[in-house]
Write a structure and sequence with these properties.
Layout: H1 4-64, H2 71-78, H3 91-99, H4 105-115, E1 145-148, H5 155-168, E2 207-208, H6 216-219, E3 228-233, H7 236-246, H8 259-269, H9 283-287, H10 301-315, E4 318-321, H11 325-336, H12 361-370, H13 372-393, H14 395-416, H15 454-464, H16 467-478, H17 480-492, H18 498-507
Parallel strand pairs: 1-2, 1-3, 3-4
């Protein structure tokens, strides 16, 4: 017979075993219930997403279906509630105006064939896949965009298009740090060049489009993974003439009375290591982050060309051609799933005709040899540009949309612009709309019609606002506190806090940024 103490201990042990078993069963039951709840929530969430996708797809189809882009529809949207809402152009009026245009549709077809000197079948494209391949396919407007702004390629006009679209949709721009106009070009891009990155001011950026030297791995750290990348090229021959006038003060052009003088001595006197001399040699390749010190005589020219083309096609979804700007805008709007209204524009940052110089065939040949890398890149992407137009849009639809785009631009010019076109800077009445003047070039701007209501004037002013003024405006909207601090700093002479000043001295001691066109002195001696 057990003693009382043993019986007591045995009872305690039995109670503990029962308690433990009971708790273990409870835990298992609780775990099963949790799993059932998770499975049920997952099912409900998937069903909700499926319903949402179905609704979005239906909505997208409904939105994009009416994009026949009739002028009645476009102008009605653009100038609704305006006192100057005009009567739509009749077909006869459109045709009459287009007959006076410098580039008619038939002329466009002829130029296309003469320019497209590289056989299309010669290249197998490895570029990023465009979002859709026909104009009737359902699509969603792209809002994550990187535009590599190249030099002297009509890129300022595209910048204005992106600025207007982003501002109208309340998108966030990846603007340069400390209210600069460029992302610390000519240095390779780095994330901390963007205002708000270090402070995590925004959860995401939508559009990056200011001048930079491209580096894909660094840009990808700032922009979302589904970002659409595009850029624009220009014939290196005409571009070199423009660069010689605009950047006349760089060391490479010092003492050179003409472009021929520079080209004749470039092989022996050009020094690519001197700051800002990169403007004078394969500037397109440089902007894309490639090695630009390549000439026609370089033994590895073909290898450099293939590597450059491969890198650009890998990193960019679309490359446009400046000489065919209207066709480029039609292709861009299809690629981004935008409306024709979104890509209408007036030419910005353009030179006056009296500062342009016609080049001889001999000079053109010298440029092609000196800038051999740019020339080969241009030939390749000129060919792929037309191939994409043919496969994505088709010639008949392209001609139709180019006609509508020109007619819309003509109509807007009649509404917005005094005298209907660009004027020299000395004739611009509003100092806030004067474009930045630099080098020997005379950069033209616009005067607005005086008889407009406030809403119409605001829309017209967006179309002609110069790059520096528009960048300042967006910076103030995105960073009002920093903008106010910059304004106070300018008044007191202390623009940067100590940490930013050391940052710039340490990393950008030889970089000279252009002064703002809003300052009293809008002429500089360095680019």
């Amino acid at each position: 017979m057990q003693s009382p103490s043993k019986r007591w201990s045995h009872s305690v042990i039995s109670c503990m075993r029962r308690a433990l078993c009971s708790r273990r069963h409870s835990v298992w039951i609780l775990l099963v219930l949790v799993l059932v709840c998770i499975a049920f929530q997952t099912f409900v969430a998937r069903q909700a997403r499926h319903d949402k996708v179905s609704r979005v797809a239906l909505h997208q189809f409904t939105v994009n279906k009416p994009q026949s882009f009739s002028l009645d529809y476009i102008l009605g949207n653009f100038w609704s509630n305006s006192e100057l809402n005009p009567e739509p152009l009749k077909t006869e009026e459109v045709n009459s105006q287009l007959q006076n245009s410098a580039i008619t549709i038939s002329h466009f077809s002829t130029k296309r064939n003469s320019k497209n000197t590289v056989t299309k079948s010669r290249y197998t494209s490895t570029s990023k896949h465009l979002p859709f391949s026909s104009i009737d396919r359902k699509c969603r407007a792209e809002t994550h965009i990187v535009f590599l702004k190249t030099h002297k390629t009509a890129s300022s006009t595209i910048l204005n298009i992106l600025y207007r679209f982003g501002e109208s949709k309340n998108l966030t721009f990846a603007l340069p740090l400390n209210k600069n106009s460029q992302l610390f070009y000519p240095f390779f891009f780095a994330p901390h060049f963007v205002e708000g990155v270090s402070s995590h001011h925004f959860s995401e950026f939508h559009i990056m489009c200011n001048h930079m030297r491209f580096r894909n791995s660094e840009v990808a750290k700032v922009m979302p993974r589904d970002t659409f990348y595009f850029s624009i090229l220009r014939n290196p021959v005409s571009m070199m003439e423009s660069i010689f006038i605009y950047y006349k003060s760089i060391p490479a052009f010092h003492g050179k009375r003409s472009l021929d003088d520079f080209l004749n001595s470039s092989r022996t006197h050009y020094n690519g290591s001197i700051v800002n001399n990169h403007y004078a040699h394969n500037i397109l390749a440089f902007d894309f982050g490639l090695n630009n010190n390549v000439t026609f005589e370089s033994p590895d020219l073909n290898k450099q060309v293939l590597n450059a083309i491969s890198a650009i096609e890998r990193d960019f979804h679309l490359i446009l051609i400046s000489e065919y700007f209207e066709e480029s805008m039609v292709l861009l709007r299809h690629s981004l799933c935008w409306s024709l209204e979104d890509v209408v524009s007036f030419k910005l940052n353009s030179r006056s005709d009296h500062t342009r110089h016609k080049l001889s065939p001999e000079t053109a040949d010298k440029i092609k040899k000196w800038n051999a890398l740019d020339w080969k890149i241009y030939l390749h992407f000129n060919a792929t540009f037309w191939h994409k137009l043919d496969t994505i849009i088709g010639q008949q639809q392209l001609e139709k949309e180019v006609t509508e785009l020109r007619a819309l631009q003509t109509k807007l010019a009649g509404i917005c612009l005094k005298d209907g076109g660009a004027v020299d800077p000395s004739k611009i009445k509003d100092a806030g709309l004067k474009p930045f003047q630099y080098g020997a070039a005379v950069i033209q701007g616009y005067n607005l019609n005086p008889d407009m209501n406030n809403q119409t004037r605001a829309k017209c002013e967006q179309l002609i606002r110069p790059e520096l003024q528009y960048t300042d405006k967006l910076y103030i909207q995105q960073f009002p506190e920093k903008a106010q601090w910059h304004k106070q700093g300018l008044n007191t002479g202390h623009v940067w806090p100590r940490d930013h000043r050391h940052f710039v001295k340490r990393r950008f001691t030889h970089l000279k940024m252009p002064q703002s066109a809003l300052s009293p002195h809008n002429k500089t001696t360095e680019p």
